Amino acid sequence: MIKEKHLLSSFVFDKKYQICRHVLFIMFAAVITFNQVLIAYQDCQVFLGNYLYLIGGSSLLTYLIIMYFNYFYLTPKFLLRDRILSYLIITMICMLCLPLLSLWIEYGVRNWANLNHRIADYSSPLILVDILSTSVITLICFCGISLILLYRTWSLANQHVSVLEIEHLTSELNKLKGQITPEFLSRALYHASLWTIKDPQTTNDILLKLSELLRYQLYDAQQEKTLLNSELLYVTKFISLEKRCRPVLEYRLKIDKPQMYHQISPMLLLTLVQSFIKKSNTLEISSNVENNMLTFICKSHSITRALDDQLTSIRKRLDLTYSDQYILQLETGSITLKLALSK
Q1: What is the DSSP string of 160-175?
Q2: pTM of the model
Q3: End position of a domain, from candidates 173, 194, 223
């Protein structure tokens, strides 16, 4: 299951907070921009008056255009497509243009208003140092925006992969879920037809038990978990029906009744018994639960090679459902399953 997003993560990435994010970003950019304007024109704030707001607004608009150009075009078209060199070149050009544009605006405003220039020599090497330092600060803002987009892309891709993995595991698990074998169905229906004339009641009993097993397979087996009591009940019904269809089968059951809250993956034990009983005329089954640990044992006089394929699919299902919470042991004449139960 995919975890719920953290509040901060939701605010940064969810579409419902998109307007709030942009408003917050514009307010943050406005504070920084107007602070820079006030510092640049602190010697003539009284003279410029309301023109300071016009200068600050034009500077803010310039910065926002470049920032959103990076957000909507540069990062998606270059950085996210691994065109890193092109992205760096264009970004550096933008970073150098912004402080140069600010100096050009300041130079034009002071000439227009016949004010003394804050910078005595615009060709001084110190101007280059100032431009570079300002570019680095702006670059940090750019990198912050780009990193957010990179992280969002990575997060969405990671979430997509997680969803695909869950869907794949679910599909794989559904394919591995046990089913009543066609051989058993054919045998049950055949014996039901034999008793139709001789003993209709026996036919009814066979068909009733078969319908209960099929109903369990069609409905309960579609759930992720089922009650252990239900699984053991249908194991008993399956063996009883097999006995009806194959009178030579001798079986003995020793099943301790588990607690009502114990749950298990449906059709797991039934599939195990079905695989084990296929070519055996004797069967002993014992089941008990202790400290939320199920011990399920099937014993018989013979185990054929045909059982190996069935155990492979059962083991795969156990790996997907219970991971390292089970032990499946195959010995001559017996299978033992130890399983940690859920509540």
Answers
A1: HHHHHHHHHHHHHHHH
A2: 0.51
A3: 173
